[in-house]
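Design a sequence for this backbone.
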């Protein structure tokens, strides 16, 4: 009797493994482009270990994205936080940026490797207020 339950359990386990392995292994890549280059307004930015910017899009939605050396010399030392903050002249600036939503992969200190974050792929200033 015990043997038939074991066989049934093994058969069920094999069926479930076969069904769900296609779901797990065919999961889409997390890297997503956010529709190419788009217009944004620079709202704020800064950081201690990793610099990021906060952007506002045409729909008034806010996105925070890590620069990874794409943002230029837009930050000044901030003695209050022992880090950096966006220079005042860049607040409200219009920019064209290409962002992607990707796994961290050990690029940013703090979030885990599997955390998905926005990263700046390209960015260009259009105008400064």
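Sequence:
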């Amino acid at each position: 009797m015990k043997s038939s339950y074991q066989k049934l359990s093994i058969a069920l386990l094999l069926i479930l493994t076969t069904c769900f392995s296609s779901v797990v292994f065919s999961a889409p890549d997390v890297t997503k482009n956010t529709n190419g280059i788009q217009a944004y307004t620079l709202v704020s930015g800064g950081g201690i270990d990793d610099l990021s910017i906060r952007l506002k899009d045409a729909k008034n939605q806010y996105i925070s994205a890590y620069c990874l050396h794409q943002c230029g010399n837009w930050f000044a030392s901030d003695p209050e936080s022992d880090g950096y903050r966006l220079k005042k002249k860049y607040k409200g600036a219009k920019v064209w940026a290409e962002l992607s939503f990707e796994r961290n992969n050990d690029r940013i200190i703090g979030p885990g490797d599997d955390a998905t974050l926005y990263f700046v792929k390209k960015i260009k200033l259009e105008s400064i207020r």
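The two ends are 80 Å apart (CA to CA).
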